[in-house]
Specification:
Layout (H helix, E strand, L loop, with lengths): L10 E5 L3 H11 L4 E5 L2 H10 L3 E7 L7 H9 L4 H4 L3 E5 L4 H9 L4 E4 L4 H31 L11 H18 L3 E8 L2 H8 L1 H16 L7 E6 L2 E7 L3 H16 L3 E3 L2 E3 L3 E7 L8 H17 L2
Parallel strand pairs: 1-2, 1-3, 3-4, 4-5
Antiparallel strand pairs: 6-8, 6-11, 7-8, 9-10
Length: 304
């Protein structure tokens, strides 16, 4: 059977208050996968929340402490994507159409009779595990594509992955030749407000204009990257902490004094900035230097 998570066997959770049903499903499943059993809905939910190895859940409807509909509600309402996307196959002796309809409305992935034979059970599981693998493969493909991209498509700045790759080279050079190196992190604090008021497209155009303006004042050896939805990072080669602080002051003045016109209105920019530099800061890697700049940016946002 196809499964992706980890190198061991797939793990299936069976939640049913009937020992007979749990034993029956274990006998069907245990030759090809790990089986975990829980005897009531509350214990089943706790297992789902704590055991990240579970790939698939079989759940009864009528159970003590928490019934199957409540378990489904907890799963589909979870803030954890792993849990929210977990396939849940309801097992029930009640096969009337009204029950099936309610089960589907509550977010069940599939419905199977407690009287189903082993071939049917294994076929349903195999289908679900294949879907899980296809979904995870798609996620990996998107992740690989994002990491292979050198530029952010919206702003034209470097992608975060590429910026970090280039930053590691700059860090190694600075360490080897004892030259200065600085990182400036800044966030457009007003981005979300503008997106809410004017729409995400306008907010995106604003970020693109800001990135373009900053690119225009950077040297060829410097690098600008988009580090999150509304934040950027600048790597300044051969730049001391004092020079970086001066650059940060000029950058902030440039941003807050900018006048972006949109449909006869002026969009005002608010920004926070954090700076870190070799020499002034002890950083054992480019990642540490960037984290220092980001932490100071967070403090600036908080008004510390």
């Amino acid at each position: 059977m196809a499964h992706k998570r980890g190198t061991g066997r797939a793990r299936v959770l069976v939640i049913d208050d009937s020992k007979f049903v749990r034993t029956t499903f274990r006998r069907i499943l245990e030759s090809s996968m790990d089986v975990r059993e829980e005897a009531d809905g509350e214990a089943g939910w706790q297992a789902i929340a704590s055991d990240a190895a579970i790939l698939l859940v079989f759940c009864d409807i009528s159970m003590p402490r928490m019934d199957g509909f409540e378990v489904l509600g907890q799963v589909r309402g979870s803030s954890d994507e792993r849990i929210r996307q977990l396939p849940v196959i309801v097992i029930s002796g009640d096969e009337d159409e009204a029950t099936r309809r309610r089960v589907r409305e509550c977010g069940a992935t599939d419905f199977i009779s407690k009287n189903a034979d082993a071939t049917v059970v294994l076929s349903r599981i195999d289908n679900q595990l294949r879907l899980i693998r296809a979904s995870e493969d798609a996620k990996e493909s998107r992740k690989a594509a994002a990491q292979s991209a050198t530029h952010d498509p919206l702003t034209g700045a470097f992608s975060l992955h590429y910026l970090l790759t280039e930053g590691r080279k700059q860090y190694a050079y600075a360490r080897r030749h004892a030259t200065p190196l600085a990182v400036v992190a800044f966030r457009i604090d007003s981005h979300r407000q503008i997106a809410a008021k004017e729409g995400p497209e306008v907010a995106g155009q604003l970020l693109a204009k800001i990135a373009n303006a900053i690119q225009g004042v950077l040297r060829a050896e410097d690098a600008l990257g988009r580090s999150s939805e509304d934040a950027f990072t600048v790597i300044l080669a051969g730049t001391s902490s004092q020079q970086a602080a001066a650059f940060a002051r000029r950058l902030r003045e440039q941003l807050v004094n900018a006048r972006i016109e949109f449909q006869g209105r002026t969009l005002r920019i608010q920004a926070s900035i954090g700076v870190a530099a070799l020499g002034a800061d002890a950083a054992a890697s480019m990642e540490e230097l960037m984290r220092l700049a980001s932490s100071r940016l967070a403090k600036a946002e908080a008004g510390a």
